[in-house]
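Batch job 17 of 40 flagged for manual review because the log was empty.
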Amino acid sequence: MSTTLLADEMVADNGAIWLTTVVPAVGSVLGCILGFAAVPQMLQDRKDGRLSKDPVPYPVAFITCFSWCLYGATIRDPWPLVGNILPVLSTAFCTVTALGYCRDPKMAARAEKLMISGIAILLGLILFSVSNVVFDDLAVRGEIAGFVCTGLCIMQFSSPCVAAITAVRKWDASKLSLPLAVADTLCAFFWTVYGTTAGLHAMWVPNSIGFVLSFSVCLVKICIGRHPHARALEGLPPSPREMLLAAANSGNKVVLRSLGPACKADPQLGGRKSSLKGGPTTFEWTPCPAGDGLVALKPGADDAYLCVCLRSASDAPVLGVETPTDYVIKAVRRSAPGDAGCFLPVHARKTEVQDGAQHVYAEDSVALYNRYYKVFLRLNSSGEFDCSNPVNECGGAVRLPGGWLWERFAVSPPGPHSTTAAPVKPTAGLPSAAGREPRDPARVPKASLVQTGKSDEIEPSAWSSQEAGLDSV
């Protein structure tokens, strides 16, 4: 009989340890992950010299985390302190960055008002709850801190729901983060379990509400993808990247217009003649879907794809034109484009701020990035298609460096070419690979078609004239 009672006591002790130690520990770890989730983006924003996100949530998160620390100190419970000390530091960093780099005066003013109001709330918590200056009863002080934390926590959990409601209304959930919503849901669940076990109403009430709200955001994100005409619903024209991907999915041709130096386009293989002397260079190509957001480009009606290839002896660059790599772009006849023929369309904005310098271009455009070789396709001043300096991906994404003009292409459907937007030289910033300034281009020799065994390859001394439809002027 005593053995059975001892076993029951051990089971009860194990359950108590699980609920009072393991559950809050997991909640603390998830809270730290959530607190530091925005830090990488903030570091990138500090490097770019601009804020890319809404600054308002950061002071709210800082105030909420700080209030939970004060609540834990008031009721003498270490777990709210453990789970929020590190997030206090990370959200403080994000708040300072947001206030320092926000360029929208209205949003910055709103974030500043929230921060000042939050500091006033925290000072009130210290006065009425942590200290016994006003109330000597610990239970009363704990109730006051609990009410304040409950309100702030519900406010923090409610903020993503505004974006979720907008996503349902527009049927576009692209701006919702599923990993963040899942982490919010798990964090709220574990703190709800701990608050219920410990009998802390101020902890389980807001976190149970937060669990429902965060789980709803997860459902919205899972059930609603990005609307194919999201930008149109917002009253915005499709971006060049979206136009290129839409053409690839529908099998339509597109016209790519270089924002770089003007060159004469050879009409033999998709080149389009400008109506103005010295006008922009354009190409009519057929994009094909290559999976995972990649496209392959066919400059003609046959099975030739634009591919990154090593520069051969016959591909000597035009005198006076510096090339940053030994890679050029050739048209290779093959059944599939392969890694060398798949490009990631990267959206390039009209106005960008990188490393504290502002770059202004003629319009929004698209850059074509090859993940295998880690280079961008570019049209140099001689009319040759070559490749940029290598650019590494960061977190599965790649950005076109500021000041790089020769890699930028405007996208439009086939039809009479408009020359409303002339190429604009960047106002400031990084040197665009090597030798970016336009020079007087030399005449590019015509290409010839050669048989190469497994595939037919356009083998020019400068690829541009035959397969890209270019002649230098």
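Reviewer: the log was empty due to a logging misconfiguration, but the result itself is present. The first strand starts at residue 254 and ends at 258. Unflagging and moving on to job 18.
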